Amino acid sequence: MLRLVPQLALIALLTVVQACSRPPVVLPNDAYIWQRQWTPALVSAVQSNADIITHWRVLAAQADANGQWQITAPDWAVLTGAGRPVIAVVRIDGQLAHFDEKLLSQQVASVMQTWRASGIPLAGIEIDHDCATARLPAYAHWLATLRTTLHGNERLSITALPTWLNSAALDSLLGQVDEAVLQVHAVQNPRVGLFDPKAACTWLDAFAAHMHNPWRVALPAYGSRVAWDRDARVVSIESERSMLVTGMEAHELMADPQNLQDFTRQLSADPPKGLAGIVWFRLPTEQDTRAWSPSTWRAVLTNSPIDPVISAQLRGTGDVQLFDLVLTNTGVGDGLPPTTVKVSGRCAAADGINGYFMERTADGLLFQAREPGLLRPGRQRPIGWLRCEQGKESLHVES
């Protein structure tokens, strides 16, 4: 027996080495199509990104807090031509005043009937209902009823919130569905932004202990303009449409592509139990001003380099004493502009624009970012103007 000890030790060592050298898990990518208008830009985005997507999760209908329904009309031919399974997403406002199971089931059944008749490769339905934890038992009861109305191999999925993790009703809720998508992007405060990797890891590990079927995580590829009142309560979130809320403190929050790419690499290297993939909110288009550029999104999903190169220059105008201060991204991928741009020299007048404000100092002018956002590759953004008696050669720009 003594002779076996070294052999057993060697086997144990080899097992550890093999475990540590396992290749990263390939996590498939899904994407939400949340746009209500199927513009040429959206059609192009679907057609050009089908090669990196496993499922399209398409907004099919939405019920507001008063129970009023809005039905979307996707381009069936585009979805069919993309050659990917489609999941119809029904959004039910978390503040729905009256949760009428029978009426909701009838409305969902009508939506599903239309989608089944469209000819698309329908894989199932996802319910997006961000209700309070106190409503989870009623939600679970309705899902059990809804599940009986599905046809064939259609799967039932829901979005899940981190706030549900401490609810005793969570296990019963998750037991009614084939799949869940944990949403870890949310507005908490302007300093944290839309995505906190540390908090996300904590939520993922906790959710894995509750979900016994395959599940996915929803990650952000977008930005929002968020307004807070004096008590630090969120009063408006503008992610797709402008709500034009005035008189409040507002911040532009944007998910950082490099931050999210690093996070997905971490997930692939050490995925939580049961994690079956990633769902991106939302599919970006060339016209989407509150989302990553399509090229940056593809770079994140394909694990390609993101290397923005952003610099500030003075650009002349028709007036020899008037100059524009312009940021330019000559690199690859969206990037965060500099928080401060310094211009040395004597200028009679100047001001900041497009999220920058100007401050005079003893050494010159400081243009400081309030809401820098992301700058797409190949794009320029004016951030200020200057009126200077001396020529441009007398000015020096640092960023």
TrEMBL record:
It comes from the Bacteria. InterPro entries: DUF3142. Residues 1-19 form the signal peptide. Keywords: Signal. This is DUF3142 domain-containing protein. It comes from Pseudomonas eucalypticola.
